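Sequence in, structure out. First:
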Amino acid sequence: MQEQLKIVKAESPWRIAIRRFAKNRLALIGLIILFLMAIICAFGPFFSPYELNQTDIKNKNLAPNAQYWLGTDKLGRDVLLRVMLAGRISLTVGLVATAISVVIGATLGAVAGFYRRFADTIIMRIADIFLALPTLPILITLGAILSDLKIEPSKRIYFLMLIIGILGWVGLARLVRSQILTLREQEFMQATEALGLRDSRKIFRHLLPNTVPIIIVSATLGVAGAILTESALSFLGLGVVPPTPSWGNMINAANNLIDFRKRPWIWIPPGMCILVTVTAINLIGDGLRDALDPKMKSR
């Protein structure tokens, strides 16, 4: 009797990573929380009966009630509406700033790792300079410059995203560079040499796609860092400025002892949003790191 050989279809690495991520309960909880937060901030304001800058002095500093679920601020504005709109700003700043840092960091890291020698030396020395710079003082200085230039709040957001993105590429560039240095010695790269492919094709079609797991994890954690940075600058009055709301400048509204002690509904909701969102993103990042780690495959 002849033995029948069964052909087992190999499971793709991405499918394995998704299955492993789905088994991580904390990561799933973080993903659900972040999804709900994004949905509420994106669509919640459309169902609010109030306007962003609608003031009602008669109803100022009201505690949470049936009409105003999270109360009102010192100008009589609905805190719930402002929290949701602030979430749009804070999440957008985090995502766009991280996207900018990923593009810069991945490109420079790939170029440094592929060409080595002179290019690697120049790029890594620039990275060392960025690492040596005190990030927060620079951000505060640039924020003060934007204030002196009297840039409109709606346009100031774009400058803020650009600044945070430009200052946050170094860590990812180093990670990508180390991966490229290893990958360029693999057999598939010898095949690209034999085929005579251009350097740009080798980098962007063959090397960078193999660093996607590291980029995803770094970007996920970078979003949390960008949100915290924006919140800190806005709290100091150097980031997103009123009347445009962000979680940071909403917390800054409680800048005196009376508001801090007697009107907690003004600063607790945006503070909790920052805490919950950043925690959820970090849980997702940890889950992705474990799911995409090759050392975890044998477990």
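Second:
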Amino acid sequence: MSMRLSRSIVGEAEARAVSRVLLEDGYLGMGNEVRLFEEEVAQYLGVRPDQVITVNTGTAALHLAVDAAAAMSRVPGKPEVLVPSLTFVASFQAITAAGCVPVACDVLAETGTLDLADAEKRLTSNTIAVMFVDYASNPWHLDEVYDFARRKGLRVVEDAAHAFGCKHHGRKIGSFGDMVCFSFDGIKNITCGEGGCLVAFDAEAARLASDARLLSVEDDAQKRFAGARSWDPDVKRQGWRYHMSNLMAAIGRVQLSRLEAEFIPARRALAARYSEKLASVPGVALLRTDPQDFIVPHIMPVRILHGRKDEVKDALAAKNLPTGVHYKPNHLLSCFSTGQSLPVTEELYAELVTLPMHPGLTTEDVDAVCEGVAQVLAR
């Protein structure tokens, strides 16, 4: 197989888990397998199972979190959410899907994460939440984000799509906070094929999100987990069909069992190799992380300086070495453009190149990519 930028790492154990659901259980929807996966995720994070709400995508988790924040807010106008522009469009789409306004904020050049000073300038009486994105799995100064939110009376929706398995100052991401959203799509740190979850630390937010993933049929999740259905339901607010299936959960349970012993060491070793090889290459800048944080890298973006980004990408492509760009800033997309300029974000976007990162890579693969980068920049 030619080198891939990212890919799923699945095998016989995941296939057997899916086969077991198909051939032995026979119930493919949301049932006992989903309940077990939620319990195992909760145990891994050190939270209660009722705080973990699994869904069919990470985007759905973000949507339900913002929807819950909006439902519990009281603002004079349309609710607004502060969000870094440098993020996957899912973050912005989740905000607008919940009937809120995404307020694009600048980022820090050295990390790609939210610039809190810039975000503070954009506060209005309609601001209800700040969406912090753990960009490239980096929970940079996360405590400061929560302090900022407390001081300003805001909810925090943490877009931790990249950060499953990471730790901030010794605490697992998802073990603390307000509303923390993970993605389990095909290329994340663990996968369910597709899927995600919301970890809610407010009982009302958890209740709203749990019901909303099942069309807001009240307490339907608990009934499905008990093998029952809601034949005389009540529905009091808008909901969506966002629940996870037993098939997805079966894959996720196997992946979770592989995370600590297999996926985390592999990803961290690859990132360390990249850092070792690229740290001394002129024209490359690595993104900064906190030494007290435990990073499990989902992607490997680096900065290519002096306007040579496209040159590097083209040269690597000629050698069949794939690269990507994470991400085109949302304020530059037609749907979310307001004409504003975010100078740091735009400058960083002009430099970012994502290098291959997944546990299927070898040390030789990483060396080939790094040598390709160094050769171009030495010209």
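Remark: The radius of gyration is 21 Å.
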